[in-house]
Amino acid sequence: MNLTLKVWRQKNSKAAGNLETYQIKDISPEMSFLEMMDVLNEDLLLKGIDPVAFDHDCREGICGMCSLYINGRAHGPERGTTTCQLHMRKFSDGDTITIEPWRAGPFPVLKDLCTDRSALDRIQQAGGYISVNTGGVPDANEIPIPKTIADKAFDAATCIQCGACVAACKNGSAMLFTSAKVSQLAMLPQGQVERKTRVENMVAQMDKEGFGACTNIGSCAAECPVGISLENIAMLNREYIGASFTSENV
């Protein structure tokens, strides 16, 4: 395939950015999107042009690093797929593909397509953990957890912290990410000790980072590559209201 790429180029967080147009030829439909980006960078290097900076690591849909906004959609046109799992067969010969970084105030652009998503780390650090001693590894049936609850906790735990929910949200909200971290531990026995302080602290940090409010549009869940459900946001709201009644921070 021969393609036209419009790629966001930005020297650093303080510089003004713009879309640059590149022509790329002989792209195999079996290539992943990131492999296509590698080919582009090889061509740019041969021409003496600074290669396009973009985040990547595992290239297996696990780490959440591949944060690209492709033709107006987080991670591209295929649902339930990270950018590294997106293949060029989803595009056609002669297509024009626009590639941008995540667009959100708390995600400043570092260079080109790389953004600083450490705001999500700080939300996690505010309470998305268990600090109490839970002892050694228990026997399989020592702490009985109903399968339905275990399945829901596992589904919430699959969040890879890529930030696609924030990028897809018109308000730049991090509610889907935060709710997944809160719900995961709120449903398990090990997470009960810090249940109230956890949701208070994580929501407070989320607001402090400057993320927008949730208006239940659902674009976050629609673009989430691992299928985190909006039910988690409902659970976060219940957890937060319940904690506020007995809060020690009031």
From TrEMBL:
Residues 150-180 form the 4Fe-4S ferredoxin-type domain. It holds the Pfam family Fer4_8. Coiled coil: none annotated. It comes from the Bacteria. InterPro entries: 2Fe-2S_ferredoxin-like_sf, 2Fe2S_fd_BS, 4Fe4S_Fe-S-bd, Beta-grasp_dom_sf, Helical_ferredxn, SDH/FRD_Iron-Sulfur, Succ_DH/fum_Rdtase_N. Its cofactor is [2Fe-2S] cluster; [3Fe-4S] cluster. Belongs to the succinate dehydrogenase/fumarate reductase iron-sulfur protein family. NCBIfam families: PRK07570.1. This is Succinate dehydrogenase/fumarate reductase iron-sulfur subunit. It comes from Rufibacter sediminis. The lineage of its organism: Bacteria, Pseudomonadati, Bacteroidota, Cytophagia, Cytophagales.
